[in-house]
Amino acid sequence: MNIKKQFIDGAWVASESGAVREIINPFNQEVIAKVAESDESDTKAAIAAARKAFDDGDWASTPAIERGGLVRRIAELIERDREELAELESIDTGKTVEESRWDMDDIAGVFRYFADMADKDGGEIIESPIPNSTSRVVHEPVGVCGQITPWNYPLLQASWKLAPALAAGNTLVMKPSEITPLTSIKVFELMEEAGVPAGVVNLVLGPGNSVGAELSENNDVDLISFTGGIETGKRIMQAASSNVKNLALELGGKNPNIVFADAAFETAVDQAMNAVFFHAGQICSAGTRLIVEDSIHDNFVEALVERVKKIKLGNGFDASTQMGPLISEDHLNKVIQYVENGKKEGATVAVGGDRPEEPELQNGFFYLPTVLTDCTTDMSVVQDEGFGPVITVEKFSTEEEAVRLANDSIYGLSGGVFTNDIAKAERCVAKMRMGTVWINDVNLYFPQAPWGGYKQSGIGRELGKTGLEEYQETKHIFQNLKPESVNWF
Ligand code: NAD
User: Fold this and answer.
1) Which residues pair with 439 in a beta bridge?
2) In this protein, which residues make up the domain named Aldehyde dehydrogenase (predicted)?
3) How confident is the model at residue 344 (pLDDT cuts 50, 70, 90)?
4) Residues near ligand 1 with C-beta < 6 Å?
5) What is the DSSP letter of 206?
6) In the chain, where are the structural domains located?
7) By Cβ atoms counted within 10 A, which residue in 10, 289, 387, 450 is the most buried?
8) 3-state SS string over 295-340?
9) Ligand 1 centroid distance, CA of 362 (Å)
10) Averaged pLDDT score across all residues of the chain
11) Model confidence pLDDT, tens digit, residues 418-456
12) Coil, helix or strand for 218?
């Protein structure tokens, strides 16, 4: 089996230590790839290459229209290799190939969006209050960007960082999750094919506590953009204080989904499932906290449970599979413990709550889709992210109570409201402290709209106009057209 390498200064290189990591298929634990395991010295070399390319190279001053053209070329190559990328993503994460195909289309869309934006920002002329002067604002790249991504949507999360960073003229070092590096490696091959200059994009492969920590601390990195868990995010914030780096954090979520009695019942049941069971619930915006009006609670839970029982688990490469395995044994054990804690605290398992029994699923990290009822906001299953196919159900009787329950969280990534009363929906949305709120929908995002969290769900916004702005510095340029001595001193 070939060992996949790091990409540093335009070349594919083995790690200095020679260390190698095996990448596992979570469906059957087979080794699907071997990749070079970077460490601090590899990371320093990658940062030095990105620094040199930014300080001495032409990329930052390349006309924005040309940078945009190159980002568009990357989108075209992703579209060309869509099927190969989708299959790589599925074998690495366990998700169904159909979900991975949607991801690849979204990813190409993200590159196209930022390609189009690259040359649309001509800065701003300010009306100067000083006679005989001009005043203007220009946007410039931040410099060397460190980019750290999680395992749940490996290439999608990478695309939200790579495309705007390149469009804005930065250089970068990316570290994908050590568990799921395969599609990121492939996209670096495509960026090389597209003609991205040497040193502009660099890829290191390895664990967070060495490679990620070096990226976060290193004084030659100007910006760190991180997607992952809250605890890692806090460590990165501390490390980034070494040289007061720009910081963009997309952290976790524990997302409420409020269902009022007047909502379209079948649609709300269907969407409550879509909110949480895609990719086995390993979605930052998964609607894991179902908050249902008491008058329909019992019927709603009954209908939900009936449908959840029918979810088909299996190999993501089998067209009939609706839900794949969890990412790793470690993560499976966390989800098992999370549900056990919920049971001890008084939650009732309405369906699931265990591993499946089918012999063909025993080698994979499977957990049954699970509905927990009798939940209250003081329980850890309602407060902690969990990140598995588990939904908790709470009851409410008034609009105010629904909003209070929804906001009772350290997270503020996303939320949903299902009702046919639009005024009521708008009243709730105005009070919900989350970066994205859906009315009569769940989990929808697109490149044109900003994405990010309130509270401990993060700092900054990816996607949309703000997604480009994260990778830009703002410079004010004042010019005196009639310089004269002031004669104060
Ligand atoms: P994680 O925090 O364990 O790891 C994320 C990345 O950080 C990995 O590449 C890891 O190697 C690296 N890392 C770990 N320790 C580090 C350190 N000390 N310094 C620097 N880097 C370090 O998260 P995960 O388990 O890979 O992903 C799941 C989490 O990601 C969930 O909490 C989920 O909600 C979150 N997430 C958020 C969004 C969003 O848009 N807000 C999107 C996807 C995932």
Assistant:
1) 417
2) 12-477
3) very high
4) 148-153, 157, 175, 177-178, 207-209, 212-213, 216, 227-229, 232, 235-236, 250-253, 284, 385, 387, 413, 453, 458
5) S
6) 3-251+457-476, 256-439
7) 289
8) HHHHHHHHHHHHHHCCCCECCCCCCCCCECCCCCHHHHHHHHHHHH
9) 27
10) 98
11) 999 999 999 999 999 999 999 999 999 999 999 999 999
12) coil
Query: How far is the C-alpha of 434 from the C-alpha of 444, rounded, in Å?
Result: 14
Q: Which of 214, 217, 250, 462 does the annotation list as catalytic? A: 250
**pLDDT at position 428, please?**
98
- pLDDT at 349 > cutoff 90: yes
Query: Above 90 in pLDDT, residue 1?
Result: no
Nearest CA to ligand 1 atom 12: 208
E strand or H helix that includes residue 31: strand 31-36
Provide the β-strand partners of residue 178.
none
Q: How far is CA 51 from CA 9, 117, 189, in A?
A: 10, 25, 21
d(CA 169, CA 54): 9
CA of 207 to the centre of ligand 1 (A): 11
Contact 21, 31 (CB under 8 A): no
Is-contact 365 329, C-beta < 8 A?
A: yes
Q: Would you tell me which CATH number, out of the four given (3.30.160.20, 3.50.50.60, 3.40.605.10, 3.30.1130.10), belongs to the domain 3-251+457-476?
A: 3.40.605.10
With contact defined as beta carbons under 8 Å apart, do 10 and 197 qualify? yes
Give pLDDT tens digits for 28-80. 999 999 999 999 999 999 999 999 999 999 999 999 999 999 999 999 999 99
* Nearest residue (CA) to ligand 1, atom 20: 212
Q: What percent of the chain has pLDDT over 70?
A: 100
- Based on the residue annotation, tell me whether 462 is a catalytic residue of this protein: no
Work out whether the CA dihedral 37, 41, 47, 53 comes out positive or negative: negative
Domain 256-439 top-level CATH class:
alpha beta
3-state secondary structure 89-141: HHHHHCCCHHHHHHHHHHHHHHHHHHHHHCCCCCCEEECCCCCCEEEEEEEEE
DSSP helix/strand/coil, 421: coil
Residue-wise pLDDT tens digits, 91-133 = 999 999 999 999 999 999 999 999 999 999 889 999 999 999 9
pLDDT tens-place string over residues 394-423 = 999 999 999 999 999 999 999 999 999 999
Q: Which residues have CB under 8 Å from 129's CB, separation 6+?
A: none
